[in-house]
Amino acid sequence: MAISLKPLYPLKQARERRVELGQYLKLDGGRYLIAAALILSLMSLVSLGQTGRLATQGYQIAQLEHTRETLLRERSRMQLRLSEAQSLGDIERRAREAGLRPMTPDQARYISVAPSEP
User: pTM, whole model, 2 decimals?
Assistant: First the structure.
């Protein structure tokens, strides 16, 4: 059976540990250099992340601008086709191709409608 002869003073031991802990947290020259390098590397990582994000957004903007230009060209082509389809000469040509002919004056019928009284 072993008996510890060392007296137990918990407050004194805690105080000694607290003093020793301060020595571990003291920064000497080498630790300052390590802290500076760590901060510098973190700042570099943040800068790289921002640069990468900006490059990605620039690429997406370029793609969207290309898509916009393509859609504007297609819209212009569609408007041209619409104006050509609405021209009277084209309508007359398609009507002849469909077998339609112009109306003669004897085919006209007029209807007179009497006004209704309220």
Answer: 0.46
* 3-27 pLDDT per residue, tens: 665 656 677 777 777 777 666 666 6
From CA 93, how far away is CA 80, in angstroms rounded? 18
Q: What is the pLDDT of residue 5?
A: 59
- Alpha helix positions (H), 28-105: 29-85, 88-97
- What residue has token string 């990605």? 56
Distance set, CA 10 to CA 5, 6, 13, 15, 16 (Å):
15, 12, 5, 9, 10
Instruction: Answer yes or no: are the C-beta atoms of 28 and 20 closer than 8 Å.
Output: no
Token pair belonging to 57: 């957004």
Phi-psi region of 99 (alpha: psi -120 to 50; beta: other; left: phi over 0): left
CA 106 vs. chain centroid, Å, equals 66
Tell me the three state secondary structure of residue 118.
Answer: coil
